[in-house]
Amino acid sequence: QQQVKQSPQSLIVQKGGIPIINCAYENTAFDYFPWYQQFPGKGPALLIAIRPDVSEKKEGRFTISFNKSAKQFSLHIMDSQPGDSATYFCAASMTGANNLFFGTGTRLTVIP
Amino acid sequence: EADIYQTPRYLVIGTGKKITLECSQTMGHDKMYWYQQDPGMELHLIHYSYGVNSTEKGDLSSESTVSRIRTEHFPLTLESARPSHTSQYLCASRRQGNTGELFFGEGSRLTVL
């Protein structure tokens, strides 16, 4: 059973646009929600993360919005650039757990 | 940049061969992991270790085995490779007690003919 559901599978935006990637979860014990960015031929790298005590976290052009009651969180990329073209994975875990549960990934393409 | 290394990066072998994927990290992390990644699918945890001489199976059943004799080294072995083992294998590590922040290697892409 998939613990974290991610959409869309792929996304194409123009440079300067604001792509939004959505994730949903069921397990209310999850208390840590990171996003990973993966470029072709590379391993995923932590981009930004949020805990459920806040509804939004911003780091540079990347923002996570978190809706605890809806059990959803999303990644927004402001002023997107061609260099942001990558696959993005959301994930969830709980304190003390041995695993991160990943979404299926979103392949983002930013057209110049 | 994370100091975690995987070799080989690419491997094409025939059915029935034994293979070992190497993973080493220089960060002194206690926790190490192996994930399997297929296109359009989530990363699946297949093995993890909390320290030397500690190994556990992950959520996804795998015919591979691992060992942790040294903190920095976490190799994965397939005794007899099959085409169903064709996949990308990602090694990762994190500090003890640091929830969630994984440092990944660049992956080993295995193709079994």
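qc> The domain at 4-95 of chain A is CATH 2.60.40.10 (Immunoglobulin-like).
qc> done
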